[in-house]
Each structure stands twice: as structure tokens, then as C-alpha cells.
Amino acid sequence: MRFDRVVARLVSVSRSEARSLVESGAATLDGRRASPSARVAARSHITVSAQRDDGALVASDVPFEVVHEDESFVVIDKPAGVVVHPGAGHVSDTLVNGLVGRYPELRDFGKEKSWGLVHRLDRDTSGLLAVARSVTAHASLQGQLRRRTMVRTYLALAGGREFDNATGTIEAPIARDPARPTRMAVVQDGRPSRTHYAKVAAWPGNTLLRVTLDTGRTHQIRVHLSAISAALIGDHTYGGDTAGHPQLKRVWLHASRLSFGHPDGGSDVSVASALPIELRAVLDALGTPSVGELPSDL
């Protein structure tokens, strides 16, 4: 029998979850990593490290960079491709698994407080995330998020339409797409959502935007820009493409700056993240902008 099928039966998870356990190394065969399709022989020894019923997580070696750290919180720089928290098909390979390995106190926060996470990023979005290390810090940072005093700034490369105005706001409700439940969409009775953008530079068919959020809905930037015929480059889910950028294997969206008040009343915090090399390569390939110019801090 296939290794992933055996794991699925042993720990009562779906095949996709079992495959994730195998591929991440959380399930081993005779003490070694193996492919999901490996055949399991009689008397083989299988070890599975999975999420426990109490909400604690298995610590895993998941890549991320710490850009700020103190006793109250950390700000991390998440690479694209890393899922933020556990869910279907992702039990031990998420950012949270990596966080609890490095900061064991986050185990105590459990699902209710999202293991210290203050906000989220999509799997294919890179950049900055704030993570609280205490209950009081978590409450403070989430309060700032609700009051919109925490400023989350993104860089986004939009395709399609030209942006005539230097700045703009997209205000449209977002909910699950009735036709495709795995996506979000602008839906009349959805949750209120507001996105602000400023044009940084433009080329024929491409516009670099600096984006800030008043709300934090799932896929908000991607959905709102797609709704105005400006889907992000590389965002195949919402109508974007990689025409002219075949080397790009992800969505061109990066959480570049994060600013907020220190939860313990200290100096305000402002951190920045440089563009990942694969996003910078797209801008380099576009050449000199026809409108505006690239900031020196990219």
C-alpha cells in the first residue's frame, strides 16, 4: 500500500493531509523521509508527528526571517509559498509550526488566539507579519488593527487597465464567491472592505502600486484589484497572468512595511522588508518606467 494511504488510515486524516505529513517529513518510514507513493512493506516502522487534540502544534523547521524581536512581540518576514496557519492539507508545514519551534510560549495561545498571529498573509504573498508573545501584547496589537492605527503597506504589480489617477480607493463588499467557493469575490451582501492605492510607477500594461488596507478580508487586495480589471501579475486565481514574465511562479504581492505602536508603550515600531529577488527581477525586466520612477528603497 502507498505510504500516504497508510498514514491516512493510521491517524484518521484525509489523503491530502496525509500527503502533507509525508512531504514535510512529519511522517517517516523506517526512520527516514519517503515519498507519498513509496510502498510500505510488512513490519515497516512508521512514525507520525501530528497536531494534538489540545490545539498544540508540532514544531517544524519552516523558513522565515525575524526582522524585529523583543519580549512582547516579533515581526517576521514570510517567504512566498509558506502557509501561515494549519488547515486542510497543512498540518505540520505552516509558519505557525515554525513559530512554536522557535518561540515555545506561543503553544499556550492555541487556536483561540491563533498562536500569537495578529494578522495573516496569503500563501503566495511574501512579507511582514506581527506575532505577539504575550496575551497583553496580542490584545494591544489586535486593538490597533481594529482601530486602523496599525498600518500595513503592500507593493503590488497590477496588469490590465491603466491607472489615470495617482491615488484611489476601492470600496466593495467581499464574501465567498457563490460560483466558486474556493475563491472570494465582490458580493453585494459581503463584508464591508476598503483598499487604498497610490501609483508608484507604470509601464504599458503594468502598474506598480503602493497599497494600504482599512480592513483585512481574505484575498482583499487581489479581489479588489481584479474587480477593477487590474488583477495582479501572477494571480491566476483572480484573472492575472504572467505574460511577458514566464519566470514568475507566484503572485506579485509583497507586504513591504509595517508600522504600529509598541504594545508596552515604548517607541513606535516601523519595519520594512526588501523586495524578494523574484519580484525585483520582474521590475528589472520591465526596464525604465514610462510613468513615475522606482523608489530607491525597493
Q: What is the strand and helix layout of this fold?
A:
Layout: H1 3-11, H2 15-24, E1 27-29, E2 46-48, E3 65-69, E4 73-78, H3 95-102, E5 126-132, H4 135-147, E6 151-159, E7 167-171, E8 174-176, E9 184-186, E10 194-203, E11 206-213, H5 220-227, E12 253-260, E13 269-272, H6 277-286, E14 291-292
Parallel strand pairs: 5-12
Antiparallel strand pairs: 1-2, 3-4, 4-5, 6-11, 6-12, 7-10, 8-9, 10-11, 10-14, 12-13
Give a verbal description of the structure.
The protein has 298 residues and is α+β, with helices and mostly antiparallel strands. The protein folds into three domains: 1-50, Structural Genomics Hypothetical 15.5 Kd Protein In mrcA-pckA Intergenic Region, Chain A; 53-147, Pseudouridine synthase (2-Layer Sandwich), CATH 3.30.2350.10; 149-298, 2-Layer Sandwich (Pseudouridine synthase). It has helices spanning 3-11, 15-24, 95-102, 135-147, 220-227, 277-286; strands spanning 27-29, 46-48, 65-69, 73-78, 126-132, 151-159, 167-171, 174-176, 184-186, 194-203, 206-213, 253-260, 269-272, 291-292. The strands form three sheets. Strands 3, 4, 5, 6, 7, 10, 11, 12, 13 and 14 form a ten-stranded mixed β-sheet that branches. A two-stranded antiparallel ribbon has the order 1-2. Strand 3 (65-69) and strand 4 form a beta hairpin. Helix 1 crosses helix 2. The longest helix is centred in the middle third of the chain and has 13 residues, at 135-147. The radius of gyration is 21 Å and the shape is globular. The termini are far apart. The mean pLDDT is 90.
